[in-house]
């Protein structure tokens, strides 16, 4: 697991800040009648205006600048002019930037119009799961503490935690060691310790029903096998000397 230098940390911090700014910027555009293609294009022009490149574009052949994952889509949804936001939808927008060669990665949920109580609660619990994961970040803690705390919190409330996708080291590359699991089965877990200068994401995907994912024909879009709703929030975090700095606030 790479320990980043002060100079690398400063550069990654800037990229992370731009990713988060792009999500702030898109907030007022996200409403009923807008297509996920329009959201993609608005975010792409915003980050390019500040000298960054969208990390997903061309990554293992991903065709767009951001991921837009609607309702039962767990992650890696592909923006499309055919996908028009409608009343009651929940939408994840995942922004990853390359600024001066350094990566930032963050996602949030957006509620479209009048959303059901069930969906609102899912989105809130997924948000809590991210926050709980972040509180586990400090030097000397094991990576599996993140997995355990999130799994426990979600299960107590009757939700499933997706195990097929995970958080990841980030900064010099899009995806680096360590791979950070949000689910915990008591058998395979990461006992490695967090150290100051490590940078990684926490990005739990939380489901109403089964947390099992299947990939669609397009080879990217991951949906719940049972069609149940799924929600995700993501931050990039830095382990500091005495705890954590959230880089994508
Ligand atoms: N941003 C996603 C993550 O959180 C990765 C998207 S990969 C892509 O790790 F190719 F779909 F963009
Ligand atoms: Co990520
Ligand atoms: Co992401």
Describe this entry's structure for a reader:
- The mean pLDDT is 98.
- The strands form 5 sheets. Strands 1, 2, 4 and 5 form a 4-stranded antiparallel sheet that branches.
- β11 and β12 form a beta hairpin.
- The chain has helices at residues 6-26, 36-49, 117-135, 143-156, and strands at residues 52-54, 67-70, 73-75, 90-99, 102-111, 160-161, 167-169, 176-180, 199-202, 205-207, 213-215, 222-224, 230-232, 235-239, 244-246.
- α1 crosses α2 (36-49) and α3 (117-135) runs antiparallel to α4.
- With 249 residues, it is an alpha+beta fold.
- It is globular, with a radius of gyration of 17 Å.
- It has 4 helices and 15 strands.
- The structure holds 2-amino-4-trifluoromethylsulfanyl-butyric acid and cobalt (II) ion (CO) (2 copies).
- One cobalt (II) ion is lined by residues 94, 96, 105, 107, 203, 234.
- Residues 105, 168, 201, 203, 234 line the site of one cobalt (II) ion.
What's the quick description here?
By secondary structure, the protein is an alpha+beta fold. 27% of the residues lie in helices and 26% in strands. The longest helix has 21 residues, at 6-26.
Topology, number of strands: 15
- Helix percent reads 25-40%
**Overall mean pLDDT score?**
98
Principal-axis shape equals globular
Cα distance, first to last residue?
A: 23 Å
User: Could you name the ranges where pLDDT drops below 50 across 5 or more consecutive residues?
Assistant: none
Indicate the proportion of strand residues: 25-35%
Our Rg estimate from Cα atoms comes to 17 Å
- Oligomer kind: single chain
Bound molecules: 2-amino-4-trifluoromethylsulfanyl-butyric acid, cobalt (II) ion
Query: H/E series, N to C?
Result: HHEEEEEHHEEEEEEEEEE
Please report the number of helical segments: 4
